[in-house]
Amino acid sequence: MKLRGKGIACFFYGMGNTGKPNPASAYVELMQDGSANIFCGVADIGQGSSTVMTQIAAQELGIPFEMVTMTSADTGVTPEAGVTSACRQTFISGNAVRLAAKDAKEQLFAEAAKILSAGTEKLAAQNGYIYVENYPERKTTVGEVVAKLYKAGKVVIGRASFNPPIVPLDDETGQGVPYGVYTYGTMVSEVEVDTETGQVNVLKITAAQDAGKAINPLNVEGQIEGGIAIGLGFCLSEEIFLEKGLIKNPNFNEYLLPTALDMPDIDPIIVECPEPIGPFGANGVGEPSNVPVAASILNAIADAVGCRVKELPCTAERLFNVLQQGGN
Amino acid sequence: MYWENYYLPETVDEVLKHLKDSNGNTRIMAGGTDLMILVRKGMVKTQGIIDIGNIKELKYIREEGKYIKIGALTTHSQLAESALLKKKARVLALAAGCVGSPQIRNAGTIGGNIVNAHSAADTAIALTALNAQARIKGPEGEKEKPLSELYTGVGKSFVDPTKEIITEFVFETPGENESTAFMRHAKRKALALPILNLGVWLKTNSGKNILEDVRIAVGPMDYKPLRAVETENMLKGQPLTEKTLKSAQETIIKEIKPRDSFQGRAAYKTDMVKVFLARAIVEAVGDLGGRIDG
Amino acid sequence: MVKKTINLNVNGKQYELEVEPDIKLVDLIREKIGLTGTKIGCNNGECGACTILLEGEPVASCMMPAFKAHGKNIITVEGLGTAQNLHPLQKAFLAYGAVQCGFCTPGMLMSAKALLDKNLTPTEQDIRQSISGNLCRCTGYKKIVDAILAAAAELRGEHEVKWPVTTGEDVVGSSVTRVDGIPKVTGESKFANDYYFPNMAYAQALRSAHPHALIKNIDIEKAQALAGVLGVYTSKDIPGPNIVGIMPHIKDTPVLAGDKVRHYGDAVALVVAESAEIAEEALRMINVDYEPLPGVFSVEDAIKEDAPKVHEGGNMLLHRKMYRGDIEKGFSEAAVIVEDNFKTRMNEHAYIEPEAGVALYEGGILKVYTITQGAHYHRGEIAVNLKLPVSKVRVIQTTTGGGFGGKIDVSLQVLVALAAFKTGRPVKMAYSREESMITSTKRHPYYMHYKIGARSDGKLTAVQAEIYGDTGAYSSHGPGVLTRTAASIVGPYEVDNLKVDAYCVYTNNPVAGAMRAFGSPQASIAYEALMDELAQKLGISAVEIRRINGYKKGSVIPTGQVLTDGVGFMETFDRVVEKSGFNR
Questions:
Q1: Residue C387 and which of B58, B285, C335, C355 are 20 to 30 A apart at CA?
Q2: Alpha carbon of residue B285 to chain centroid
Q3: What interface predicted TM-score (ipTM) does this complex get?
Q4: What's the CATH number of domain A2-14+180-324, 3.40.50.720, 3.30.365.10, 1.10.10.60, 2.40.320.10?
Q5: Residues 79-138 of A with CB under 8 A from C
Q6: Nearest C-alpha of chain A: how many angstroms from C7?
Q7: Residue B294 lies in a domain
Q8: Which tens digit of pLDDT belongs to each residue from B77-90?
């Protein structure tokens, strides 16, 4: 018999190392043609941090995305940004990059204020132009200002360091402020269970995550979907077999991560509840879509068949055995 | 270093000559998908390779008289996509379509899969259900052997790839009131060894309510694709009813020899054989337009 | 070995090469022809990263002798399109976000091309079937499927893939194409194993033969004498303290095990040789005299009083307490209490790119090109262990094929640096899939006991939990993982009274460390199951109990922190419940 069920699970997730300082830093260099180099130690491992940093710098400087080049994770060139982990890079390195860009922009505005005969607080930058707010015709370009400063013997370099506000956890009670900011999410999984075999087919996953502000919505969706794949493997098929400490399946033939055929339809939903201390309101989003996957699938299975596996992975065999025992 | 010599003959005769000349130091490679793993792990050692991949005369699927003939170098992809097989011997097309991944199916061949002698090779299960014969050419000429006699031990084939070559598989084309089915249960939908695979060929009466004849092959339940002979005998002449299926399920679990593996425990495999035997019979009978009575 | 002539056409160009008769196709393409877009992920035909088209059919080039391509036509990712003239599939992969780390991308593109060459109107299922032999660990495949559908539409002449993507007024909030996208779809991106330098040598490590043993002696004489071996090194050859660890206060992992091995992944010796094959042969000639010790392989055994000690300080690495409110009062106020045990297994990160790195010691600077999730962290470990000023070590992250936490810890970085430092040669070290899996960190297996109480209206009153995490032979991020679990012990549900005891325990199992979401997925299966059970017993819905307890502005988390702004939980909840039609 094939039975269907739906299950729900939720998460909240803190950005950064738990209750410990974990700063990041960045430099921004502006060139006379109005382009910018940013230097930051953040390691992009595929999640897209270099793209996010480039977007943040371009937005803050008010220059086109194409005019910004990111150099990342080269200790001979880039300043420290900590490890790519714990969803910390968009929030922590993103803030460092934004603040470094802001530092450079302030140097520009100080000079531009003279050129445009306006107070720096009245200036704005967009698309490579610096202009007086409400008077868009009173403008100059970023490049011109950089060139002018250079002729006066000044190179425009911005720099910044950012550390999330935390309070170390008390050893005896665990009380404190573990993280500066949090992301939240909810997931519903829909499954079909073959009760004769215990085989679970995940049909659909609907997943929402609070990105604060999605710096790059397509990449945020990519993080949600990728996390779901890892969570699905964790739930249904992935298992290191150990025999007295020796891994018996150190290969992709017997350690089974999901293939394209194993993945369900996914409906990713981005929620934007601005984070006051995030760069442009952003949170980190990389890891936690993986948190509620197994839980929501297991709840869906329980909804379908009325009993539950409490040991992962929930292979067909484990579920079959629970079903045979008439549930629990 | 894996091997020192590499030959790429164009004809079967050339292969036989190389084999004769090399005196057991050189072995045949078909698609190479299994052999490469064995060589890399040091489980197979050879001085030379005779790559038979360029022998065009061994690549075909055709119907001749009352037989279907398949050249040993036919790839799994070609089997899976064959209109002839899909229509007349679906068990083999479906089985070939379950092997590994598209990449493996494009390189791996049916002959190589059989000589590799893995008891749960999907095509071996299908060929066993089809009661296929293998044609083998060697120094003493040509011989035919039923597929079930090609296995001499765990991973050991009757066919010695340093001496002889399988050229063809032949089986009777399923005819009127005859049908096949293939079932596979695995932990993942691609690139996974089977927990269990099972092939069925059966023949009903014209009323489609009595099972006149049946062959059941199942793996990995023994060192070779297991023919569930007792179950077949029990089923012959029986009406197609739930009761008959139940008896078949109880019979088959007495003749299989499952073992614990990463794919699953023996007890689970036993339970699953029951499920998939019934499903295979229901599907094959359903294909003929028949059904199982309650 | 007598070389043999091979003729083949690669991407429209004819090659005639003299090569060893046993060379594999992937090595021919990468090393003899120099097209490194084709990747090696498993060397066993199980991941698809090495997929190329042979006479138009996708095959695994890691499983194929090169001579199978003799006289034939091959297409690799470099033959698909160039940065100036991208193929519709490449444009679509960029436009639809189908590229993340980029390591599976070349093989994925080849499988997709083979499909579209035959079928320009594929269904989603056809596409999934055609890429089922290409593992991707980053994307969940959805965007890859979307991209292939879009490319098919362009190739049918229906509508062009919209690329490049332009930004709106604001760059932030625009789905601009990733900055490293183009080289990832053309095969130009250089991953660590794609670096070749003149005069490059190769390093390989000898791994422990035991899960727990004393090392009495290491005899390297024979290995050293083997022709082509440049050096064999043991713990004695490390200038610095021979210790690394991501938690600054718990550095417990030797670079090369000296007196003791604690799991099978420990490296005991390092060989540097003219080729990877010679290095491998030399490894077999090293004789290690071990005195096996009894091992502990489960948390249950490790915490027994008389358990063998993995480290001198005992097997209990951390007891994280998270106590708040009055747990007894909390349970006394509960109308229903539910309680259960849950268990999870060890998981592999399974990034498709195995660990690799190349080190060069030039002009007094030790340069290391390597996979990493933290170049500065790795720089520090190299400098300390080689006794070099930190500024004299330069770690350059190469394009990295996924990490998910598994490339945070030091893997081969100090070893390959040591090899270059000692020999003065550029040295490459690249793990096989097997070595990667045996040595890299894992997701912690958890043993969890939970007890949760709620009032009759569904409000949670108390949570008590004991969590045990098996961190294996070394700490890695273990304490951080268990602490994070404790700090989010019931997810986004508020409870005033809680008592959590989370234990991080050493065993002789593989090392567990950071893996995407640090201990949270494990805990989630427990608290979400019990939330459903509470709802059932109270006769309220799964939705209702979560609404009642879900975090809102002003909620207090287990550490006592009050959530102020930016609490988007209920919004995510409402959106998902509505869109999925969830009504349980």
A1: C355
A2: 21
A3: 0.97
A4: 3.30.365.10
A5: 80-86, 126
A6: 33
A7: no
A8: 999 999 999 999 99
